[in-house]
Amino acid sequence: MSAEEPTPIRTKSARPRAMAVVAGLIVAIAAVGVVAVLLLPWQNLSSQRRSIDHATETLARLQAETSHLDQRVAEAKDPVVVERIAREQLSLVREGDTLYRLNVDPADAVSLPLAWPLPGVAHLLEGADR
Q1: 64/102 Cα distance (integer angstroms)
Q2: Can you tell me the distance from the alpha carbon of 95 to that of 100, in angstroms, rounded to the nearest whole number?
Q3: Backbone angles phi, psi at 95, to 5 degrees
């Protein structure tokens, strides 16, 4: 090389830079893939936990209701309880019981004030004498 000839300047090739960009993209895509693979099972697991919690609550409620109904069935088989319910709710009596019936005139049992605003009620009470 002579003193007059300039030395050639080496230009950096664009090839290594492009390879670095491609490698970076591959790493980014791989990272997104790994996150997706880890995240999807987590969502399924979370959904399954909520489903199990809901089923557990439903089971506990149904077991409590079943226990209550079992208790009512046991009571219904007891003749003393059956008789009490028949007397209270159905007004039934046993053979040989003495039945008392009280006839009360509603006009005697209810006294309305003079300034009562609903005249129809007073009319019904007066009509009970007939």
Answers
A1: 44
A2: 14
A3: -65, 130
Structure tokens at 64: 């409590």
Q: Which residues are within 8 A (CB) of 126 and not within 5 positions of it... i.e. 6 or more apart?
A: 107
- The CA dihedral of 118, 124, 126, 130, to the nearest 10 degrees, is 170
Binned at pLDDT 50, 70 and 90, residue 7 comes out as low
The 10s digit of each residue's pLDDT in 10-39 is 556 667 788 888 899 999 999 888 887 877
CA distances from 11 to 8, 14, 20, 77, 78 (A): 9, 9, 18, 102, 104
Distance CA 55, CA 37 (A): 28
- Nearby residues of 76 by Cβ (< 8 Å), 6 or more positions away: 82
Secondary structure string (H, E, C) spanning the chain: CCCCCCCCCCCCCHHHHHHHHHHHHHHHHHHHHHHHHHHHHHHHHHHHHHHHHHHHHHHHHHHHHHHHHHHHHHHHCCHHHHHHHHHHHHCCCCCCCCCCCCCCCHHHHCCCCCCCCCHHHHHHHHHCCC
